[in-house]
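1st attempt posting a full record on here, be nice pls
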Amino acid sequence: MRVFCLLTGVLLLTACIDDQDLGHYVAEVKARPATPPEPQPKSKEFVPDTYQPGSERSPFGHPQPENSKKSEASAANCELPNHDRPPEELERYSLDNLSLRGTLGDQRGLSALIRTQDGVTHRVTMGQRMGLNLGEVVGITPDELILKEYILDGRGCWENRETRLLLSETK
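the predicted structure (as tokens):
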């Protein structure tokens, strides 16, 4: 076995001794003429715009919000989520981190099996909350879970959005 290793080592070292081919290749590459770089694209000529203080916002002032005053009439017509209740466990997770793994049915109706990114499976029924957007379970079918989420619209009101979690094979 030692003889075989010794012969293999000697064979590998003799292969590295002949570097004439490498020297010829390097000399050939250095002898090639250099290719000139591509020309720069033409840029458009800059035309300054004149500032007219009477018709435009001052560039030096602080920006003002579009709706600086909240209208009490519009806030009164908004549907507001209940913030006075304690948060449920699945409200800590984004819907991206939750997956519908199955449904169970009994005399009380369907319930959904929701798996978190931690690998923990929770049983969810109608009316329970989940997701970061105050989602409430409003429907459970054999292949999907329907949530009503509350999203701030930027004017002090909350909009309802229906979101569906579809039954997932693996995650």
